[in-house]
Amino acid sequence: MGEKVNQMLGKLKTVIYGRFAMILLGFLAQLVLLMVGYFFLRNYSYLFYGLFLAISAIVVVYIYNAPGNPDLKLSWMLPIAIFPIFGAIFYMTIIMQPGTTVLYERLKALSEYTKKYVHPRGDTRDKLRNESPHMGQLAYYLEKYDNSPVYDNTQMKYYALGDSQFVDMVEELKKAEKYIFMEFFIVSGGRMLGTVLDILKEKARQGVEVRFMYDGTNVLWNLPNFFPDMLEAEGISCKMFAPIRPIFSTHYNNRDHRKILVIDGKVAFTGGINLADEYINEKERFGHWKDVGAMIRGDAVERFTYMFLEMWDVDETETENYEKYVLPAEDTPSSDGYAIPYSVCPLGPERVGQMVYLEILNTAHTYVHIMTPYLIPDYQLLTAMTYAVKRGVEVVILMPHIPDKKYAFLLAKTYYDQLLEAGVRICEYEPGFVHAKVFVSDDVKAVVGTVNLDYRSLFHHFECGVVLYRNSQIAVIEQDFQDTIKKCIEVKVEDYKKLKLWERMLGRIMRLVAPLM
User: Fold this and answer.
1) Which residues contact 393 (CB under 8 A, 6 or more apart)?
2) CA-wise closest residue to 399 among 381, 386, 411, 387
3) With CB atoms counted within 10 Å of each terminal CB, which end of the chain scores lower, N or C?
4) CA 130, 134, 135, 136: dihedral to nearest 10 degrees?
5) How far apart are CA 77 and CA 83, in angstroms?
6) Greatest CA separation found in the chain?
């Protein structure tokens, strides 16, 4: 099946790009209609013009007083200032979309529903609080606002490259006896996808329940629209999250950027690695691809199981019975520190991904080492990083040297001078592209997941990750950081000043709208 799928995907590239063109034309047509209506009404009557100016003023007052990120507020005020009427109408079109409200209410209901299946973890949280008040408080926050308990009967294996994670993914998939849940942001034809699909097909034949979910943006360049039907024909349940159609909706802005694989409730994988050959360096894109991941065993797998089920059921009308997915207590391994798997929902008031990173920066004593493909922090994270250095904490950020998105790289460089002058070290991975999302601190804390240091991940995408405390793999993560930094070029303040004037200007201009990108 895998080889057939790859052959078909190669032939269908023109069809996929044609579909992308049609969707883009649909969006542009709606935008043109909105702009034409704006200009027509503006010139048609001073009454209309005055009315819409009043609406613009009300919208500005609303944005200023609304809760939320101040950077995002300022970015919204820019189009309103330049196009006083059109900008306000566009903003109202965005915030009044009912789809996102319905989706958020459904996710809240599902999160509440899963609470009855989660084993109580009060004793574990109290034990953690006794060892570390700060970590105990973080555990309390994540459990209360993200339904993400802290687990102790858990073990983890860290992967410094997608190449090595893929080997274990294949082996674990072959062992599946009850169910396989897969959720990825990018799915693209090649050896990786072909190998996985062959195993999934065989497991479905054996009676294993297989569910496969991927983000709907894949129909724009990677997969045909009927890909779910192909998998369904092989006994594999498949669906897209938020399929994209040529109808404007803010729902399309909130993508499923998570990477989750759960097998029998006993093992889970997460991290930055998608189902595409560049992630295992089978295909070269932007030099050598540096990505990381984690395999979790034990009680903490429970949270990844429910993360997946909640997202899978978000568009279902009936709530399924999760009882059969509860992990038996006797299957849990011995403890290796603490683990808190968490999810990030962009639709509610809580910015869980940002709070986790801020907690690590604000409580660090010695160092915080960071790997991220994008560096577009908001004011809070920027302040936390510079303040950590001012407190005597070593902060090092490891970035790509060969970027996948040149505009994002130019935008990231606009933050270099401020960070470098404050004492933050920035190093670029000379062999290629870094896609890893890692925080490690003081030899006792670490985060591995899908959350980038940019507005997309922190405010707009569905994400996930796992917080580790006093886990043996934290030393492995730090060693990987030290090994990787040896292959990096350290950026100096004068390096930023060597950028061409137009590059610096373009980056500064993009920074105005970065929160909306």
Assistant:
1) 364, 365, 366, 367, 368
2) 411
3) C
4) 50
5) 10
6) 75
